[in-house]
Every structure is written in C-alpha cells, then in structure tokens.
Amino acid sequence: MARRPHALVIGGSLGGLLAAGMLRAAGCEATVFERAADDLASRGAGLGTRDELFLVMERIGIAVDASIGVAVPERICLDPSGRVTHRMRLPQTMSAWARIYRLLKDVLPRERYRPGMALERVEQDARGVTAVFSGGARVTGDLLVGADGIRSTVRAQLLPQVQPRYAGYVAWRGMLEEREIPRDIHAQIFERYTFCLPEGEMMLSYPVPGRDDDTRPGRRGYNFVWYRPTEEREALARLCTDASGRCHGVAIAPPLIRPELIAQVRSEARALLAPQVAEVVARTAQPFFQAIFDLESPQVACGRVALLGDAAFVARPHVGMGVTKAALDAQCLGDSIIAAGGDLDAALARYDRERRHFGARIVAHARRLGAYLEAQLKRRGQREVSELEQRPERVMREIGSSAVDLREFASPRGAS
Ligand SMILES: Cc1cc2nc3c(=O)[nH]c(=O)nc-3n(C[C@H](O)[C@H](O)[C@H](O)COP(=O)(O)OP(=O)(O)OC[C@H]3O[C@@H](n4cnc5c(N)ncnc54)[C@H](O)[C@@H]3O)c2cc1C
C-alpha cells in the first residue's frame, strides 16, 4: 500500500485544526505544531457561524447539533434612546471561539498536536519540506500548511512583501455572563442580534455559549463588538501603551490595557449607545480591543507549502467569515488532494487557483462593508458617496450574513 503523505500544519488555532481534520479526511497524516505551550481554549470571544463551517466540521467527523451555539432569530437596531428603530428576521447561530476549538481539537489524536513548537523557517528540496523550529528541532514532511495567522512566519519567508494593512479602526470587544445582565435589558436584547449605529461607529452585540460552552438559558454569554475609528500613529499607539509607558505595537494583551482607557470607553458608551447596550459595556469586567487589518496574498501555494486561513487572506470581520473561510480553505485543500489522486503538486496548483480567487473577493467585499468606518479619518469633502452614510437596513442585512446569500459569492468557483 502507498505511504500516506504527511502534512506539517503550522499553527494550532482554528485554521490549523480545520486543515489537519480535512487533510486526514483526504487520506493524509497530519501533525499540528503550535507555538503556544498552553491550551488555547481560553482565547477568543464570540463567533458568528455559517452552515458552510458546520458542513466542513461534519466532514471531519464532528456531529454538529444545537449545542454548537445560541440561535438568534432576528436583528434589531436601537437608537441612542434605546428605542427599536429597525427589525429584521435573519436567523443565525452564534457560537464562541473556544466551543469550535474544543470540538476540532478533540477529534485530533493527542500525539498529532504538538504545543510549544515555534516555527522559525521552512526548507524545501526534492525530498519534501522541512520545518525548522526554535531550539533546532527539524521535522520533514511531504507538504506544509502555514495556518499561523495574520503575522504568519511561513508567509513572511515566502512572500515577504505581503503585509497586513490597517483599516483605520479598532474593535472593542467584551463578553458578559447572561446572569449579570439586568432582567429588563435581557428581555429587550438578549436573544437578538442588536445594532447601534452612532455617527461614524458601529456596535453589534449578540448571545453566545457561556462558560464551559454552556448554551442553556441562564448560563450563556453576551458578546459585543464596537468598531471605532482610531488613527494609527498616535491614537492606536496610545491605546497600545501600558501603564509603565511601554507601547506594545498594534496590539496589547487585555490585562495591560490602562484602566483609564476602559473607563473612557464605558463613559463614551453611555454617551453614544443605547442605554441597554451601554450597560452591557459597563458591566463587562475586561473589555479589550483588536485593531482591524486586511491582508491579501498574491498566491497561496508555493512549492509544497500552502497558506491557509488568516495567513493567506484576512477579510475585515464585518463578513463574519474568518473561521468559515479557513474551513473552506481546508476543504479545498483536502478535495484538491483527492481530485489529484494524491499528486500533491497538482493538488496545490488547484488549491492556489481556487483560494486566491475566493480570498480576493471576500477581502474586497469586507472592505466595502467597512468603507464608511474607514472613511471617518478623512475629511467629509474627501469621502466617496458610498462612504458618507451607513444605512441601518443595509448594515443589518449585510453584516455577518451568509456569503451564499450574497450575489458576488454565488459562483460555483467560490463554493469549493
Ligand atoms: C474583531 C474580530 C471579530 C471576528 N469575528 C469573527 C466571526 O464572528 N466569525 C468568524 O468566522 N471569524 C471572526 N473573526 C476572524 C477569526 O477570528 C479569524 O479569521 C480566525 O480565528 C483565523 O484563524 P487562523 O487559525 O487562520 O489564525 P489564528 O487564529 O491567528 O491562529 C494562528 C495560530 O498560529 C500560531 N502561530 C503563529 N506563529 C507561529 C509559529 N511561528 N509557529 C507555530 N505556531 C505559530 C499562533 O499561536 C496561533 O495559535 C473575527 C476577527 C476579529 C479581529
């Protein structure tokens, strides 16, 4: 019997686990190497999901049932007084990063997940591809998948010219336990996807599984994402500066965010957002923020190396598509190997063609959805017509809604 190809997957977050699962389903052996030494389950926050993600999880062998998330039947938009101005039926399941992570990790044999392994570089020759880790360990395989995120070491080596581009705004995020939400506010917003659209900003909030992935009423969580225009050189640098005066670049660990910044966000929430949502922000113990970037790679395969998930393309989160895109990348990689009858070079060529196309379209679409927010740093006279206003009906219909509902993703090439 022919030897099963061995894939080295760099990055053990959702993209890497999805890749390992689909490669195993396609008949490969796959080993995941993750830089972090600890379990990643404490990471992350709420996550909008899509059926495409669940279909890939099922192919990996995970039975997806209602406990995957919290069903949200409709969307509402609140004005600053807390009145519902718009209502739209759009059922969706909201999950949490940790919930999906645990399910994916549990189906991978323990010995196939190697924590504490930081890739330093990749070497390729006629025998295959070798991953060289810090400390000097070397592992050779037939194929290497760079699923090591937006700051990918794999991509930096292969495509050093490709850099993330700051979108001009940050997302303040936070999660609150269901039982901490006052009863009257709970009744008004908890089981809904709620928007507040103050001028120049966008806030969304929704229920997610709670502690230990519990989706039972009373034990769920409530997640918010608040997009706020933030100039890069001074304002973002200020946000990323800790109490000792050290600037951490474009991201800072949540516990290091200065208390006065959190107090300021809470007070601005009271001034700008519906009182129900401002109360959620006020009660969230540790709000944190992420600067929003997008990233486009001109190619996603190079020799025996494939880029996948955020390492390949990052679309702004308005499409709510990051994890689903990683799942579709993984599916395309597995299917390409099957279609090529195990010819890895042909499989990678097909993967490159298809995912490059899809990635570019989704990044462009997410940019359009974020254009109004990005334009806030321009003077009004310099803005394009499409950047001048955000119409609630459009925002509610398009933000985080299913890609297959959008005309530009309807082509079969995008559905791989
Ligand atoms: C504000 C916000 C909201 C979002 N909301 C959603 C949403 O609702 N729905 C959705 O689908 N997506 C959402 N996303 C996107 C989603 O979080 C990402 O697209 C997804 O997590 C990508 O996963 P990944 O595995 O490709 O990368 P990452 O999750 O970044 O994982 C990369 C992994 O590689 C490891 N690594 C890095 N370098 C090395 C190395 N040298 N050696 C070994 N390991 C390494 C890292 O430790 C990490 O574990 C959101 C993103 C943001 C910023």
Number of strands: 18
Radius of gyration over C-alpha positions, nearest whole angstrom = 21 Å
Number of helices, counting only DSSP H or I runs of 4 residues or more: 11
Identify the overall geometry. Answer: globular
The biggest beta sheet reads: 9 strands, mixed
User: Order of SSEs, N→C?
Assistant: EHEEHEEHEEEEEHEHEEEHHHEEEEHHH
Q: Proportion of β residues?
A: 25-35%
Give a written overview of the molecule.
- With 416 residues, this protein is an alpha/beta fold.
- The protein folds into two domains: 6-64 and 99-164 and 294-415, FAD/NAD(P)-binding domain; 66-95 and 166-292, D-Amino Acid Oxidase, Chain A, domain 2 (2-Layer Sandwich), CATH 3.30.9.
- It is built from eleven helices and 18 strands.
- Strands 3-5-4-12-13-14-11-15-18 form a nine-stranded mixed β-sheet.
- The longest helix is centred in the last third of the chain and has 31 residues, at 344-374.
- The relative contact order is 0.16.
- Bound molecules: flavin-adenine dinucleotide (FAD).
- The site of flavin-adenine dinucleotide has 34 residues, from helix 1, strand 2, strand 3, strand 11 and helix 9.
